[in-house]
Automatic annotation (TrEMBL):
This is DUF2200 domain-containing protein. It holds the Pfam family DUF2200. It comes from the Bacteria. The lineage of its organism: Bacteria, Pseudomonadati, Bacteroidota, Flavobacteriia, Flavobacteriales.
Length: 121
């Protein structure tokens, strides 16, 4: 699926620190914890809590965030629709990576079991 250049640019320039509080609110509202969210983010990106906090403090863009990430080799197993786009069909790598993260946060908030979210089951 093709995203527009404007859409991709907007995602690339968005700061992770502007979205992260919304991730926390979303999962906590559904009874999950910040620690579970951190586990999901670390699985996808390789960032531990300290590194993640450093990136938040630096107000890095999603472009910089994912350029520093060591993407999990099973990330390509993340499939489904998020924000109207089928993740596996998104052609722009950065946009796809951001949508991977969005999908994992959604799965966590929806109560999916952690081993399924982390694609270990």
């Amino acid at each position: 699926m093709t995203t527009t250049p404007e859409h991709d640019k907007r995602i690339a320039e968005m700061t992770f620190s502007s979205v992260y509080p919304h991730y926390i609110t979303k999962v906590e509202k559904k009874g999950r914890t910040k620690e579970e969210l951190l586990q999901v983010i670390e699985w996808l990106t390789g960032f531990d809590e300290k590194k993640l906090q450093d990136l938040i403090n630096q107000k890095v863009t999603f472009k910089d965030f994912f350029s520093q990430a060591d993407l999990n080799s099973n990330a390509n197993l993340i499939k489904g629709v998020i924000c109207g786009y089928r993740i596996e069909d998104i052609e722009t790598p950065l946009t796809q990576q951001v949508r991977y993260l969005d999908k994992l946060v959604d799965e966590l908030a929806k109560g999916r079991k952690m081993d399924k979210i982390l694609r270990t089951a």
